[in-house]
Specification:
It is a single chain. This protein is an all-alpha fold. It has one domain: Di-heme elbow motif domain (Multiheme cytochrome fold, Orthogonal Bundle). It is built from eleven helices and two strands; from the N terminus they run αααααααααββαα. It has a two-stranded antiparallel ribbon. Bound molecules: heme C (4 copies). The site of one heme C has 17 residues, from helix 8, helix 9, helix 10 and helix 11.
Length: 170
């Protein structure tokens, strides 16, 4: 092999290593949170949550799988661009409609769908009831009666609903 080719191959390998390192570094919680100061409140509220230490930002904020990972990285490049060219504030971040897909939650909570009440609501977003999940220590679960006004609030999520409850639904 000529010397020229060896140099080219060496450069390609070096680029791959640098890229992988960059991909890994930008997936860390530290990077997600502390690279931009306006992310800090999200990192702090995550630290207060039950999900601290058992999740990474990417577990919820990227669709599961390789495509989701690549998508999250591409969004990240867009975010970096916006970060460098515009003046972002915390208010802008809070005004964003951040959506976490059920698939992300189900990676770890797959067995929740054995529960009849969760099955009834499987087409909804987990976050419709689990308000503020992942951020902050108090997690409010919305009471049944707030969405089903004719229903009492005292149902347990995992009880079998009686026919009477279901009639009330009509
Ligand atoms: C257990 C899942 C979960 C984890 C882990 C998680 N988040 Fe979130 N995050 C959510 C959900 C759900 C929302 C959107 C609904 C809401 O506002 O609560 C959200 C909202 C956000 C928002 C929008 C701002 C806001 O207040 O609405 C930002 C920014 C954010 N997360 C960043 C992060 C960062 C940074 C980390 C890691 C340090 C992280 N998240 C970890 C679930 C998670
Ligand atoms: C990487 C794995 C992982 C992901 C992703 C994840 N969780 Fe969790 N979650 C856990 C673990 C671990 C616990 C704490 C131990 C337990 O009780 O199961 C927990 C606890 C919970 C609890 C009970 C504790 C509480 O805060 O009230 C709920 C509800 C919950 N998760 C819902 C969700 C929802 C909704 C999502 C998606 C937005 C999600 N989780 C994403 C692993 C995960
Ligand atoms: C219609 C509202 C609703 C939806 C939608 C919903 N949940 Fe729940 N979930 C509840 C309620 C209510 C509880 C019981 C909470 C309690 O007792 O504190 C619960 C409990 C849980 C628990 C804790 C179970 C335990 O053994 O303590 C987990 C984990 C959970 N939900 C995950 C999810 C995931 C993941 C999704 C989306 C795929 C989801 N939930 C969608 C209402 C909902
Ligand atoms: C955030 C709003 C919300 C909350 C909280 C909620 N539900 Fe629902 N529920 C819905 C929606 C929306 C549907 C229709 C789901 C569908 O068709 O995919 C539904 C469907 C149902 C059904 C099926 C019958 C029907 O009307 O389609 C029953 C039964 C039910 N819910 C019971 C409960 C119980 C019990 C609780 C409390 C543990 C509860 N729900 C909490 C929104 C909610």
């Amino acid at each position: 092999m000529s010397k020229k080719w060896m140099i080219i191959i060496a450069i390609v390998i070096l680029l791959i290593i640098v890229n992988v390192a960059a991909l890994q570094y930008t997936s860390t919680n530290e990077f997600c949170t502390y690279a931009c100061h306006y992310m800090e409140p999200s990192g702090e509220s995550w630290e207060e949550s039950e999900h601290y230490n058992v999740t990474k930002c990417m577990d919820c904020h990227a669709e599961p799988g390789m495509i989701g990972y690549i998508q999250a990285k591409m969004d990240g490049v867009k975010e970096l661009y916006v970060h460098l060219t515009q003046d972002i504030t915390r208010e802008d971040i809070e005004a964003m409609e951040v959506h976490v897909s059920n698939e992300s939650c189900l990676q770890c909570h797959g067995n929740i769908m054995d529960d009849p009440n969760h099955q009834l609501h499987e087409r909804m977003d987990c976050g419709d009831c689990h308000l503020g999940i992942g951020h902050g220590e108090e997690v409010d679960v919305i009471e049944c009666g707030e969405c089903h006004p004719e229903m009492a609030n005292d149902h347990d999520i995992d009880e079998d609903l009686s026919d009477e409850d279901l009639e009330e639904e009509e």
